[in-house]
């Protein structure tokens, strides 16, 4: 373990592509993104090299994200490669779920540890409105396939729009029926997220408590991150809150991020990055470790979402990976 890794910086969030098969209104710019040329994207071998050095420094958990990770060709192969790195205890994925049913068998075989499916509503028309694609039933098939395969499955929800009452109620029903954690994430003022109405976790918890007065807080952490969990008697799964804005959890933040073109990002809120692509293409293992240490040391005290003028990140969430 290295110094700031003392703070248990053990979670590496890696974007494997900047491309996506959806266009969620709070994540993707209105005019779409200009895709990075293929030569700019790290190869599987390069991602593996960076992860191997990160693991040597104490990194344990890897999350693959995007854009949409399942649109990256042969992604199960990368998962299997990462699973074999000594010290890596879990490789998980955050996906929109559209291609999940198709990939489920290969993902199970690859050794994927868990899947987070992003789903903001249970209304097919609202889903199409948010994401620009009529793909709600495909996501539900993916969710069902994941549960049936015995994969640890979580649903990540960002509530947006004027009326979210039906959304949160119906999403909760997934945790009632299945052993799936449903986690509500506060909308972050990054890219298009700045322009939309979001809901605080505190507000939502109160609404849920009004409906389910028996809901109880859980002491147990379920995943890699800062979600706080609750359980409703009779439910198969739990309810989580990731209060990215209002519940400032920076002091326990355990992650760094790497974009598809190999830029290491110490904090979501700031645009500063360190160029790992250059190092992995021209340097040694020691150079990679040295840059990772610098990125960990560069982690700021906390985010600045409350002071929007200080947010220096100008990219959209689709190219950051969430
Ligand atoms: N395409 C994959 C997916 O949708 O799960 C992975 C990438 S996506 C950028 C990762 C996560 O970021 C999703 O759960 C999405 O809902 C979330 N996200 C995107 N924009 C956001 C924003 N402005 N605030 C909060 N979460 C956001
Ligand atoms: Fe694509 Fe995920 Fe962003 Fe939606 S949230 S546009 S699915 S990257």
Account of the protein in words:
This protein has 322 residues and is α/β, with parallel strands linked by helices. The chain is 32% helix and 16% strand. It contains 10 helices and 12 strands. Helix 2 (75-83) runs parallel beside helix 3 (100-110) and helix 3 (100-110) runs parallel beside helix 5 (136-148). The model is unreliable at 1-5 (pLDDT under 50).
Topology summary:
Layout: E1 11-15, H1 44-56, E2 61-65, H2 75-83, E3 90-95, H3 100-110, E4 114-118, H4 124-131, H5 136-148, E5 152-157, H6 165-177, E6 181-185, H7 201-211, E7 216-217, E8 228-231, E9 239-242, E10 255-258, E11 263-265, E12 274-275, H8 276-282, H9 285-297, H10 317-320
Parallel strand pairs: 1-2, 1-10, 2-3, 3-4, 4-5, 5-6, 6-9
Antiparallel strand pairs: 7-8, 8-9, 10-11, 11-12
Helix pairs in contact: 1-2, 1-9, 2-3, 3-5
* Alpha carbon gap, first and last residue: 26 Å
List the ligand species.
S-adenosylmethionine, iron/sulfur cluster
Structural class: alpha/beta
Using only C-alpha atoms, the radius of gyration works out to 19 Å
**Average pLDDT rating:** 91
Strand portion: 15-25%
Number of DSSP E strands: 12
Biggest sheet architecture:
12 strands, mixed
In short:
The chain is an alpha/beta fold and 322 residues long.
What key attributes describe this structure?
single chain; 322 residues; alpha/beta; 10 helices; disordered N terminus; binds S-adenosylmethionine; binds iron/sulfur cluster
